[in-house]
């Protein structure tokens, strides 16, 4: 007897033999039992999943001499002829070869004649989506109102190409891919029938490679059986088909988790020298990483992994977490897409392996967030300590308030915080105002003109009988208030009023100031803060009509009031020249603000770091070590 391939030998002959299509089989059994036979059916689904076999079984069920019956006997003349494909009343047409309208016209002429010896004349048109548009149109009337003895069965793998007018005239059945477990069971039965020994790992590999198609699995089974010598093992499949098995992949990825890029690249070269194609190797690596990810997430089903979970390297499973394995899997999937356009697919593969060698250093954004949260208490403590030192030196704020405010300004991941305030800003202590510049940038001035500086100071003394003492007051600069010399005019009439209220006018103030030393102003006192207010106000006022001058002022720093002179620093010699040219405008402005002549003295100075990298604070060192960063400079 001539050799018969497994796919033909094991073709289903009854509805019970259909694998993975239980819904279709049950529907047809009920339809035939009730006698409700439709005049047209449309079968759609992937290749090799049983569409044509179902059409032949339906033809036998309708034409069996014991029927119509849901279980054709397979022994009568009609069943044998249909099985052999020689029945005159069951016509199989290849839609890919008979696409023209003339072929459809021939069908229209034939349906006028009743069946020769069977109960129904059945037309099975395979790959019906290949028919031309005119052929479909010519077929519409025939399949809508055919003779009562005619049944049309259409089969297609591309349902979207079938016109809607055809679909609406047919009962549609969608065939599905066969699960791997069921494919493996059928392969085991085929091996048993053929007298071939086959291990489960080899059969699982064949089932997975078939992609859910029974015909593909039988074809691959025949190929493997041809070189296996009566015993199919995974090792024979790996060696003969040029596969990289799980054992070899354990070696390759074991070197990657150790960071041994040299030996990993050499191992890759060995695989390629053995004739393994790059595409096949990438596919094997991708399958391996997918299986590792499934095992890492607790999935150990052998049908999904293709082999036992114990065969995968415990070293790889312990070294990489789920996030890192996901990144590696995405890397290889992208690699497969990139090699088709690459200058050298091998270079791309070697680059991917090299990247895997430092995958253990990869930190996900979620891990960064956790690290920041862990460091936050240390930052809080550092800010509290800094606030306490500043408060004890200046006497301006209490250490408790400074600590609370410092803690509030610690950076937060607002999007990951529950109950976060709008715009992602951290909440502030009860009773505190929101941060004056939450989006960054310089703090906006509290006043709009030099006149308000004196007004603010005067308003703070309205409720008291006398100005505060030097150790309690806001101004401790020892100013000597004098009327403005005539002839001095402000640069901008809008920005600087003609008469600004002096900051102090009572005898009590003059008496209090006369008791203070006039040669030096304490830098840490509140007067320094007022100087910064003057700076901000000057920049705001000059920016209205003198933007260039305002820009020069913004670049200055370290403003200090020393007696009757305002000393400020800049790093650029050219800027000093520009400031000196406008010194008269600045002096006039300051005279309006302070009520006395203030000299404007710009000084050139270069900023230098006060500490070196070797003298970093403990908090900075901890941050550097936690995030594995590098300090590149100190400001």
Beta content? 5-15%
On the 0 to 100 scale, the average pLDDT is 75
Strand order of the largest sheet: 2-3-4-1-5
Q: Main sheet?
A: 5 strands, parallel
How much helix is in the residues?
A: 40-55%
What gyration radius follows from the Cα positions, in whole Å?
A: 44 Å
Cα-to-Cα separation, first versus last residue? 92 Å
- Uncertain runs: 394-416, 418-529
- Count the strands? 10
Structural class label: alpha/beta
Q: How many DSSP H or I helices?
A: 27
Write the layout of secondary structure elements.
Layout (H helix, E strand, L loop, with lengths): L5 H4 L12 H13 L5 E5 L6 H13 L13 H8 L5 E5 L6 H10 L10 E6 L6 H12 L5 E7 L7 H4 L3 E4 L5 H15 L2 E2 L1 H11 L3 H15 L2 E2 L1 H8 L4 H12 L3 H13 L4 H19 L5 H4 L8 H6 L2 H17 L6 H12 L8 H30 L4 H10 L42 H9 L47 H8 L11 H20 L1 H8 L2 E6 L2 E6 L2 H9 L1 H12 L4 E6 L13 H9 L9
Parallel strand pairs: 1-4, 1-5, 2-3, 3-4, 6-7, 9-10
Antiparallel strand pairs: 8-9
Helix pairs in contact: 3-4, 5-6, 8-9, 9-10, 12-13, 14-17, 17-18, 19-20, 19-27, 23-24
